Amino acid sequence: MSEALKISVVICTYNRCVYIRDAMESLYNQTLGKDAYEVIIVNNNSTDHTKEVCEHFISNHGKANFYYHNESKQGASFARNTGASYARSPLLCFMDDDAIADKDYLERIVRFFDTHPDAGGLGGRIIPRYLPSEPAWMSHYVSSLVGHFHYSKDVTVFAPNKYPLESNMIIRKADFDAIGGFNEALPGVMGTLRIGGEGKDFFFRLKALGRTIYYDPAIRVQHVVEISKLTREYMYRVASGIGRGERVRTLQKGKWTFYKKILEYLLKLGASLILAIGYTLQGKPVKALPVVRFRIDALKGLMNH
Predict the structure, then answer these.
(1) CA-to-CA distance for 167 and 126, rounded, in angstroms?
(2) Which pairing describes strands 156-157 and 212-226: parallel, antiparallel, or unpaired?
(3) Is the pLDDT of residue 1 over 50?
(4) Radius of gyration in angstroms for the set of CA atoms belonging to the chain, rounded to a whole number
(5) Mind giving me the DSSP string for 193-260?
(6) For all residues of the chain together, what is the average pLDDT?
(7) Which of 64, 65, 95, 98 is nearest to 80 (CA)?
(8) Which superfamily, per CATH, for 7-230?
């Protein structure tokens, strides 16, 4: 069986029983043959009905290779590494538990690596599915906090300081093992605490091996975004988590790298003020404050507040 497998999809889940079934359903209904892929679900201490939903789905979809595991160490990096340890194919794909893959998602990924033998990693497009609709205050500069990602309208290689998002990324299993997987000092979400940047750290280490990372906008997932959950507290957790992760990552490299990051964040804060003024002059003042708050919150996280 493992010889026929071309790609392994890892979905780490935490209290998303409302959405995890749709994510699994989208992967079940792929154009790629069911003997060519496996889906590995890793439950990261969910307290809702995630276990029951996953096990019921798997028992009723026996034609596909779906597997369910647990990871008790809290954090996406722990769960992703656990999922990867069970993978049996040469390609590893990571997708979120509230994402919905296009029908040809896996077929396109496999074809891409077949036609791009130099590809060490691959990222795709992430399209927010706002429920019930996109809020008026949302802008391009804030949408990344809810998972929106679109790097280029054409297939291209990521610039040295750019990288895919973790919720739609693919890597060769051999390279994943070579860099030791995700940095568990950057666990991602841990309950209400976030220490993010695990994807950035991951791809920077992969690039250090000399691997080429591509972006293909045709490899798409939709990411469910419940507007009611985008509270001030939630947005702070996400933005400060980015800064908190950068604090850990840069201090691992040295204090000078950390100090440079502080300067970079201060410059970005200044740029956000200019953007806010621009939105206000354009008659879109509702978009102004979230842009500035994003940069302030990220700076607070960087300074460990």
Answers:
(1) 8
(2) antiparallel
(3) no
(4) 19
(5) EEE--HHHHHHHHHHHTT-EEEEEEEEEEEEEEEGGG--HHHHHHHHHHHHHHHHHHHHHH-HHHHHH
(6) 96
(7) 95
(8) Spore Coat Polysaccharide Biosynthesis Protein SpsA; Chain A (3.90.550.10)
* pLDDT greater than 50 at residue 300: yes
Give yes or no for a contact between 97 and 10, defined as CB atoms under 8 angstroms apart. Answer: no
The model's pLDDT over 14-59, given as tens digits with 9 standing for 90+, comes to 999 999 999 999 999 999 999 999 999 999 999 999 999 999 999 9
Name the amino acid, one letter, at 116.
H
Angle between helices 17-28 and 50-59 (to 10 degrees): 20
Q: Would you state the structure tokens that stand for residue 156, as one six-digit string?
A: 């291209």
**Tokens 């919905």 label which residue?**
100
Q: If we measure between CA atoms, which residue out of 13, 80, 1 comes closest to residue 38? A: 1
Instruction: Give the pTM.
Output: 0.93
For residue 294 the two structure tokens come to 């994003």
Residue type, 98: D
Cα–Cα distance measured from residue 205 to residue 203, given in angstroms and rounded to the nearest whole number = 5
Q: DSSP label at 38? A: E
- The ranges assigned to domains in the chain are 7-230, 234-302
Sequence length of the chain is 305
Cα(118)–Cα(78) distance, rounded to whole angstroms?
28
**Look-up: residue for tokens 């507007």?**
227
DSSP letters for 89-118: SSEEEEEETTEEE-TTHHHHHHHHHHH-TT
The residue with tokens 């429920």 is 131
pLDDT 10s digits, 70-128: 999 999 999 999 999 999 999 999 999 999 999 999 999 999 999 999 999 999 999 99
CA–CA separation, 249 and 68 (whole Å): 31
Instruction: Report in angstroms the alpha-carbon separations of 110 from 28, 64, 123.
Output: 16, 17, 13
Give the whole-angstrom CA distance, residue 156 versus residue 141: 22
